[in-house]
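Protocol step 4 of 5: obtain the predicted structure for the target chain.
Materials: sequence only (see below). No template structures provided, no constraints applied. The aim of this step is simply to have a reference model before the mutagenesis design in step 5. Sequence pasted as it appears in the construct record:
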Amino acid sequence: MTPSGVFMNDDGFHRAMTRAGIMSVLFMEIAGKVALVTGSSKRVGRATSVELARRGARIAIHYRSDEPGARETLRLVHEAGGSGELFQAELTDNAAVDRMFSDLEKKMRVLHILVNNASVFDRGTLEESTAELWDAQMDSNARAPFFVAQKAARLILLQPQGKIVNLVDVAGETIWPGYFAYSVSKAALIAVNRGLAKVLAPRIQVNGIAPGPVLFPEHYTEDQKSLAIERTLLKRAGSPSDIVNAIVFLIENDYITGEVLHVDGGRHIM
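Step 4 output (structure tokens):
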């Protein structure tokens, strides 16, 4: 045990705090915190970045290749009254992730919140799935979020408390035959979410969000959109704000960890 009353394991992760230390930091105020949002050049990642900035967070805006989109997110962050920095990285490349976190530490000094939003979504049945498709889905949707969380945790644990939110998918619980490799990759991410919650407790709360039909993939036809909506109990599409509000809820809440919150209009029980 360190002099501060924090236990460490062999990997250098904090294992526990004194009861008084935990109780003093239960509720997280977003204002003044630093949040890394992966895949924040568009869609839900952008909406999350802007809302957290509106609430007073400084935003680390990650992008892979869409620099114009990331710069537009930064403009919207400024418009919301916040501040941020851009960080480019291919998250399936561990060396690139290392460089991103080194850059983040230099520019932003600290980290309190990680939103693991970046992912890929490619179709492939059992018969259609190739080794390349399988590896691409697993690398982007399970391996990358794990190693990003690993690096993020080392910074977050320098603070009294932190939050990690992983964007998972109900496909990981039900397995969609038409998106076989994608579904398995999200099942792996759900397992990663649960494992991180165990390993990083009580200092970091780790939760997942399983979105429903909110922003459809660009390749979806009108028939595919209608079918996705029909498979919800509420019979309508959601909006990015539904997901963002859930992310904010999990960041601010002081007694939820290891959960997957379904924000899918009831699709997961259909």
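Step 4 remarks: The two ends are 48 Å apart (CA to CA). The chain has nine helices and nine strands.
Proceed to step 5.
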